[in-house]
Write a structure and sequence with these properties.
The structure is a homotetramer. Chain A is α+β, with helices and mostly antiparallel strands. The first copy, chain A, contains 13 helices and ten strands. In chain A, 46% of the residues lie in helices and 12% in strands. At the A-B interface, helix 11 and helix 12 of A face helix 11 and helix 12 of B.
């Protein structure tokens, strides 16, 4: 049996001829500046060990991966009341679709599509100023990763704000159904800043490890969430974590994950460990193309699939 | 630690005050005749042992649970080519919706909604007579359950045929996009008969055990499917097995399952075992109300959730 | 002021360089065999005079234009009860869309989309054999045109039947909501045969003249329908007569009309007269390209627009 | 034959037992304060005569009726280029639906639904300050009515702004597709103020008379628009003027009109005259209930229906 480090290198080697595949996100100028050739991967184990390959110390925009952390934070603040304002079902449509919001009276399908994450940001802000909520989310992620050196990329946040009409539409639409407390520009402020958090794969794998570890901080008995809540969050990652490619990801990879348009994916295998992968080129539904393939190889070479007998 | 038998009796006792809850399916007269008070549960272990409680020897109409077996059969016949004609994504809508079929040019979202199962029936028939395909499906299920005493309920099949306009519409609609080989009435013949198969919980748990057992026939090294294929089938069960309640089921129960409007659910926990539960009253999205609760209790009292660390 | 005959010749001359423009319908083989170069136009006046140009004695498949006559017949048979089973609103979508049928519980938006016309055919049949209803529709059109020499093109009817999966889907879908009395194959038999009626422009202009003439048979005081009913039928033609191009047609032409995929359009200007035009090439929403332009020129050179002051 | 004045009084008398029927708009508090018992009607003839009944000197909020005037103004400014940014087809859905905007890439179906009118407001503003555009629209309406005593109801405008999330969503959504030049809050400023214009029936009938008069200012040869443009505007009123009740209105009334949620309707019969009616109670699709009935009676007692032979 190979070591984790050998496994990472095997995956890196197998995929290296294809580095640059996929289409880098271009809806905001800042994201399109990233080199498509980048590739990094990190695996964190419950014992605290972290293994890496590629540009694993280089920070990238985590974008929608932040939704996992903000959901966890919101559940900690208001508990299961979260589910009165956001659903738990796969959306069956694109990440920024507004159609289902109309059919379902302003209740987003799940917390991992944009509309759902905006509601979660509103829950965290709880009527206070955006800067407080942003600070709270950032501090939470730093705590999870045990790393103070995690920051918001200001130029990405500014770029999101300048090109955020679609998210503004989602926010105003939900406000029209009474499903938003903060004014829409303020809640978008929270949302855009959480998406603009920059992390490297090492930090991201560490930050997500509690979900693979029954809700416990790695190497301690301190709990971030209960074991049941950890299970529920990763269940949502499995069914809703990759937009309209969630079914395909579960089918091919079988490890709960959440992707971001920055090309990152955070995946967690309960009891086994957490994985962060980064490759900026996206597939047709907006998930990292090689990031998905890397996780498929991980699933093939290990027993980390949750569907493994 | 309690035994499996004690676990079943505990669940039975906890739910017994609520027997009769939910709404029995009434879209075909035959189904509405079933007593809502029925409750049965069976658990099969990889070593071949089966434990039961309630009316576990009483047969009920498996309805959509048959889609798991027909998908397995179709994958065996044509392999991954199945996915050219049916998708792998949760539908985000009701089990018999025709809306998405129009947007997606006659390709059903997944094999577990009605439209998808009709395509699978067409694949199995492969242009031959309906009776052959029906016989093949029935034989396959008998083989999986090691039980020749499994039959098609003729009155249910006749009732489905007489009230099957919606499924006829789905079939004709797919035919208009060229996604059907058999004439629509013939393929519906296959589909209606597979839905009308009657099984009891003991038989159903045994028939589904190969999926919990890495694709192997319980107690032998003979394979029904490869381990990878078994994982993929149960991944689809998790993301798509409960219509528009699949996300909620994954969140609350965390065990891949497939429900039928007859009130049955087949669930499989990889490496642990398979469970069949039957309670005719349905919840608002068409899944067994107490069947879901029974599985939630099972998940609570054991480590069978695939999200368990 | 020019004569009607001069007007027709002017339009014919202006459009002749473009004969062949547009795309001939190909969804059934029989229609695709028609030469795209054909062009004919006929105008009938309330005094009974008929003027023509082009191949005005050559019969073509009237297709959806038949819906005007079947609606008139159904209103005569059951009166305003028609509107319990079909709406009066423009559809905002393609002629054969099934999406709105799902949202509106099996009630088609209007009698001029396919689903609506199928309901009208069912109303005419009133539970009797298709052949009776077909005969009734044909006799009604012969009576309106004062011409026994109008027939059903059997090869077109056969071709429709063989390629009619989409219409079968619409029929089965409505049946699932209880909005159909005849079995779906029988009602489709009526519908396909009425669409396969072949007429030339002279016959068609004469058959539609009662609608321009306050409901009266031209040259007599005999009424086909009351003046109010004639107004209502042509109001529906204006708002719904050209599928999802109805708004554009009202904007550019301003004369109530009904198009068919055979390339024909019947238009009526109340108090002025009726026009039939035929040019097989269709525009992007399925209406005759040059037929529409011919009517736009007619509107430009006369005061036949109903929006004319 | 009765005089116009007698006609108005006959309609007033027939409807008076039902004054108060329907449901007054309540989505903004200011509108809900209006007494449902109000009823007024005014008819203006091409010779400049105006006849009235009821509270015809009492101003009400014209709301969406303003869309007729803003469309006319925008056509005067940029001509047919308007149609690159807004369609001409009935929407087949509610006045504030966002669903079709997604399917049609940010191009509203027509200028009389909210999204379309917001684009028209953006065209009028042409990148300048909202106050200029608002002033221009107001001046245009005063000119058409020959009445300087027409004002914007500031409290209604403020109320619209405070409750305008749905319109904000529509604006942001179109901005995300590049179909808006002004920032969304500024264009909404224009839109909310034009909707808050208050007019009485006498003023409204006079302001709309040019559309019945081939585009000419009543009693002069000065043109507001060409005869062709007048015809095109009223064609749009017929097909799209009453939201998802446009087909029904054409069927029952047969006079091009535009309704507002303030309970007003402006209708124009080409060559005959213009009518303004006001009754605050709305029907299920958001059009004045008794206003529609009053116009149906007008159509019944006269030859003003455009479908009249």
């Amino acid at each position: 049996m190979q070591s984790i480090q050998e496994l990472l290198e095997r995956i890196h080697t197998e995929l290296s001829p294809r580095f640059g595949d996929g289409k880098v996100a271009s809806y905001i100028p800042e994201l399109s500046k990233v080199s498509p050739e980048k590739f990094a991967m990190a695996i964190a184990l419950p014992n605290g060990e972290v293994f890496t390959c590629g540009q694993s110390e280089e920070a990238f925009s985590i974008q929608s991966i932040s939704k996992v952390f903000s959901l966890t934070l919101a559940l900690g603040k208001v508990g299961e009341k979260v589910w009165a304002r956001v659903g738990k079902e796969p959306s069956g449509s694109a990440f920024n679709s507004i159609v289902q919001l109309e059919h379902e009276k302003g209740i987003p399908r799940n917390p991992f599509i944009n509309a759902g994450a905006i509601v979660i940001a509103d829950l965290i802000a709880n009527g206070h100023e955006p800067s407080e909520a942003i600070g709270e989310i950032l501090q939470f992620i730093r705590f999870l990763a045990s790393d103070e050196n995690i920051h918001i990329d200001k130029s990405v946040a500014a770029s999101e704000t300048a090109h955020g009409h679609r998210n503004a539409a989602l926010a105003e639409f939900m406000a029209s159904f009474g499903n938003l407390n903060l004014p829409s520009d303020k809640v978008r402020g929270v949302y855009f800043h959480q998406c603009a958090i920059a992390m490297n794969c090492r930090q991201l794998a560490k930050a997500g490890l509690f979900l693979a570890n029954g809700g416990r901080v790695p190497g301690s008995d301190n709990r971030v969430v209960t074991s049941q809540r950890a299970r529920r969050i990763i269940a949502l990652m499995l069914t809703c974590g990759h937009y309209d490619g969630s079914g395909e990801f579960a089918f091919r990879v079988g490890i709960p994950g959440k992707s971001g348009v920055g090309g990152g994916i955070l995946a967690v295998s309960p009891g086994k460990g957490s994985v962060a992968v980064w490759s900026p080129g996206l597939n047709s539904v907006g998930n990292s193309l090689l990031g998905t393939e890397a996780l498929e190889l991980l699933s093939k070479y290990t027993d980390w699939s949750i569907f493994y007998e």
